[in-house]
Amino acid sequence: MRIGILGGTFNPVHIGHLILAEEALSKLKLDKVIFVPTLTPPHKNIEGDVKPKDRLKMTEIAVQDNPAFEVSTFELDSKKKSYSVETLKEFKRIYGENAEFYVITGSDLLKDLFSWKDVNDIFKMSKFIVANRPGYPVKDVPKDVETVVITPIEISSEDIRKRLAAGKSIRYLVPDKVRDYIIEHDLYK
Asked: Which domains does the chain have, with CATH numbers?
């Protein structure tokens, strides 16, 4: 089994995340992509006062109509700082040693890659995939990292939060049901 792992704060999840997952699924010939919302990421702060349960719910809503996508609560359930190496160890336990894992990230994180906890163990347990992201050129790629070219979509969770705070529309930037959830729960005001 070939499994993509897409971690992040998903604050909120948006169509850029979904396009990345869908294109990685196809181009890397994956069996599925697991979205892994993080509780406390080691490299950035989670902005705003949105609770982890809301980020989880929005992610579940966003992927519910794609049978090749699923959401893991492992990092949220751990109640501690999230590290990809720990998540990979857990997935190896769940899916077995024969499963192939592909850790998928955007090119914006490439510069910080070697500050990740036990990054060499991550390389041993998985293939590390970097996808292009507008404004972050894919360059100086380490030999243990593969690249995948996806349709460039210049969208970010930060921009969506700013739009919402300013009372602007986010239609077509997030799935309709995620937008409905944000409005219903009065998030990002």
From this structure: 2-184 (3.40.50.620)
- What is the CA 62 to chain-centroid distance, rounded? 12
Note the pLDDT tens digit of each residue in 32-68. Answer: 999 999 998 776 777 777 999 999 999 999 999 999 9
Residue 169 class from Cβ within 10 Å (0-12 exposed, 13-18 middle, 19+ buried)? exposed
pTM exceeding the 0.85 threshold for the entire prediction: yes
Torsion angle in degrees (nearest 10) through CA of 88, 94, 98, 99: -60
> Per DSSP, what are the bridge partners of residue 101?
3
Q: Which residues pair with 133 in a beta bridge?
A: 136
pLDDT tens for 86-127 read: 999 999 999 998 999 999 998 888 888 888 999 999 999 999
Rg of the chain over CA atoms, in angstroms?
16
